[in-house]
From TrEMBL:
<dbReference type="Pfam" id="PF14092">
    <property type="entry name" value="DUF4270"/>
</dbReference>
<dbReference type="InterPro" id="IPR025366">
    <property type="entry name" value="DUF4270"/>
</dbReference>
<protein>
    <recommendedName>
        <fullName>DUF4270 domain-containing protein</fullName>
    </recommendedName>
</protein>
<keyword id="KW-0732">Signal</keyword>
<feature type="signal peptide">
    <location>
        <begin position="1"/>
        <end position="21"/>
    </location>
</feature>
Length: 474
């Protein structure tokens, strides 16, 4: 009888045998005891965790642009800024001969704020002095030069944001007038992208002071935009917009180019923090040297590595069928609050036999704005949800935070079975994974500033556990 048949036959009785099984718990990796027929339960599998610094994080063309800074009580000072191109929103437009201006702002729809937004900070918009290269990928460490004098700035606290969930940065009259003159010169024609690009190379959104980082969503439905509101010659109120350029329009993605239009810069000063020695790609710090805790901060490439070093002790000279396996992950108590929120969910990224992230290239064609375009990106392979192809890419498992148990619960039944297959010298099939561990990563990849402090398996309370129901196949 093969392993799949055995699993199907025995999994129905798993929970019926829970009571007796729980009284037969084995410690895999230290005190494994042989057991007879039946479903066996263990929650004492040896787990090793560490904080890992991955390669630089690509932040090109993400839906959320970031700006702000805050000092994390654990991870140090975090700063974020964004760099982006713009595109015309109103195609053919005229301000008329005598516009009566009401306002001119850079409007930014708020997606999230992280940190204490009640403190005063300043956001400012600057013209770039160099262009974004559409043919390269930008990373979290990248920056571009910009003019020192802003075209607009806004000093505020979080209580002064718009009732419509926006931050509106007032623009200078001189910059407003430059835009009006540009548009009126083209009043009988369409203001083209080339003409706008010749007028401005792009913008930088930067922050000074405060203790919060803001995330602004920039999509076709919710555009971040320069908005000039005025009374026209006919007495009606009108709005002219120039929006942050959408990197997924037909005009932006063509000929299989990446076509970079915007990116985020995110940096950290980790001096005098538990992670101050973490400086090189794929370097790890075991939880034993960071007070039995590890860390996740997605946009800085800080994640948690999990490995089960003694799984081979479970196999030895036997064949094992995993009926169910759940990894339970807890945040360290009192490490999160209204300012330092937890990620909504956690993903699990696969590692190859060398302990490096498994990558795959995503490329597909679709129709946008009536034109065929090519979409492409290089992504991290994630552990798939149960019932799907374990070697696939499109059905990843994501663990949402359970506020009742205060944990993330991850089912890794198939993943663990495939790791055990690779450890079993009697197994001759191809359905196997290396026992290299995996990476815990937060959601909103490459844009999230949220962080999590993960409780290690050796912490006194709420420690990480792997709970397994398994059967020894005779």
């Amino acid at each position: 009888m093969n392993l799949v048949a055995v699993r199907k036959l025995l999994s129905w009785c798993c929970f019926a045998l829970l009571w007796s099984a729980c009284n037969k718990s084995t410690t895999i990796g230290s005190e494994l005891q042989p057991q007879n027929l039946g479903v066996i339960f263990t929650d004492t599998v040896s787990i090793e965790t560490s904080t890992i610094l991955l390669d630089s994080i690509a932040t090109t063309n993400r839906e959320i642009i970031l700006a702000g800074e805050y000092t994390d009580p654990v991870l140090g000072q975090i700063k974020a800024a964004s760099f982006f191109n713009v595109q015309p929103f109103n195609k053919t437009f005229s301000f008329g001969a005598n516009p009566q201006f009401i306002s001119a702002v850079f409007s930014l729809p708020i997606n999230f704020v992280y940190g204490d937004s009640s403190q005063v900070q300043t956001l400012s918009v600057h013209r770039l002095t160099e262009k974004i290269n559409p043919n390269r990928v930008y990373y979290n460490y990248d920056m571009l030069n910009y003019e020192p004098t802003p075209v607009g700035s806004y000093t505020f606290s979080g209580t002064q944001t718009s009732a419509f969930g926006k931050i509106e940065i007032p623009l200078s009259d001189s910059f407003r007038d430059e835009i009006v003159n540009l548009v009126n010169l083209n009043a009988n024609d369409e203001l083209t992208q080339a003409e706008l690009d010749a007028f401005v190379k792009g913008f930088a959104l930067v922050s000074q002071g405060g203790n919060a980082i803001w995330g602004f969503r920039v999509t076709d439905q919710i555009p971040a935009a320069i908005e000039i509101k005025f009374i026209g010659d006919n007495g009606s109120e009108q709005i002219y917009r120039i929006v942050v350029r959408n990197a997924t329009s037909a005009e932006d993605v063509s000929n299989e180019r990446y076509n970079s239009q915007r990116f985020n810069h995110v940096s950290a000063n980790r001096t005098s923090t538990p992670l101050q020695t973490l400086t090189n790609a794929y370097q790890t710090l075991p939880s034993s040297v960071t007070n039995q805790q590890t860390f996740i901060q997605e946009s800085l490439g800080i994640r948690t590595k999990v490995i089960f070093p003694y799984l081979k002790e479970l196999v030895k000279d036997k064949t094992i069928a995993i009926n169910k396996a759940d990894l339970v992950v807890y945040p360290v108590e009192n490490s999160h609050n209204q300012f330092y929120k937890l990620p909504r969910r956690l993903d699990m990224l696969r590692l190859d036999e060398n302990g490096k992230l498994v990558k795959y290239f995503l490329r597909f064609a679709e129709t946008r704005l009536g034109q065929g375009v090519i979409i492409q990106d290089t992504l991290d392979a994630r552990i798939q949800a149960e019932g799907n192809n374990p070697f696939g890419f499109d059905k990843p498992f994501a663990a949402t935070f359970n506020s009742i148990s205060n944990s993330y619960n991850m089912e890794i039944t198939t993943y663990l079975q495939y790791v055990l297959n690779g450890l079993n010298p009697r197994y001759k099939g191809v359905n196997k994974f290396p026992n290299s561990g995996f990476i815990l990563s937060s959601d909103l990849a490459n844009t999230a500033i949220y962080r999590m402090i993960v409780s290690s398996p050796k912490r006194a309370t709420r420690k990480m556990q792997l709970r397994i129901f398994y059967t020894i196949v005779k």
